[in-house]
Amino acid sequence: MFSNYKPTWMVDAIYQITPLQLKKMGIKAVLTDLDNTLIAWNNPDGTQELLNWILEMKNAGIPVVVVSNNKSSRVKRAIQQFELDYVARALKPFARGIRSAQKKLNLSNDEVVMVGDQIMTDIRGANRAGIRSILVKPIVDTDGWNTQINRFFERKIMRSLVKKHPEMKWRGGLE
């Protein structure tokens, strides 16, 4: 019933995804949500751990593109210090923003992955775009008011998915 919301992988945090793991899966680029995936929604400055992860990806030749439903000024301000490309107002769960980022990279569906903390936007959008997805745990337990509504429904969807797919478990990486 909720198979459109099923992630390909479930990883504790984006920082546990390594270039080696991605390359083993044939993935050449990472599309990622912003709030509660890369940075805490209420702390737009990020962390040293995030900076280290981005540098690790860049050094491995794996581009990271932020795909966010936020307005451009918010995304730009949050990621300017990281020098990442982005697509704002992505309209996830629709595939438009994800496809736009993929087009910038000129990569096939098998060569990109979408990482996000919400199954109703990030994972559903990835599935609509026909690309693999990685669900990560939110960086902080609090959310903006609009995301709190999604979280209520996500809990119900996740219970149903885990019951139907017992292999869905949180892991420390893609392997």
Automatic annotation (TrEMBL):
Q: Which PANTHER family does this entry report, sorted A to Z?
A: N-ACYLNEURAMINATE-9-PHOSPHATASE
Q: Which cofactor does it need?
A: Mg(2+)
- InterPro entries cross-referenced by the UniProt entry: HAD-like_hydrolase, HAD-like_sf, HAD-SF_hydro_IA, HAD-SF_hydro_IIIA, HAD_sf, PGPP1/Gep4
What protein does this entry describe?
HAD phosphatase, family IIIA
Spell out the Gene3D superfamilies in the cross-references.
HAD superfamily/HAD-like
Q: Name one Pfam family in it.
A: Hydrolase_like
**Superkingdom of origin:** Bacteria
Q: Which GO terms describe its biological process?
A: small molecule metabolic process
Report the source organism: Enterococcus phoeniculicola ATCC BAA-412
Matches recorded under NCBIfam families? HAD-SF-IA-v1, HAD-SF-IIIA, YqeG_hyp_ppase
According to the UniProt entry, the coiled-coil residues are none
Q: Which UniProt keywords apply?
A: Hydrolase, Magnesium
Q: Which GO terms describe its molecular function?
A: phosphatidylglycerophosphatase activity
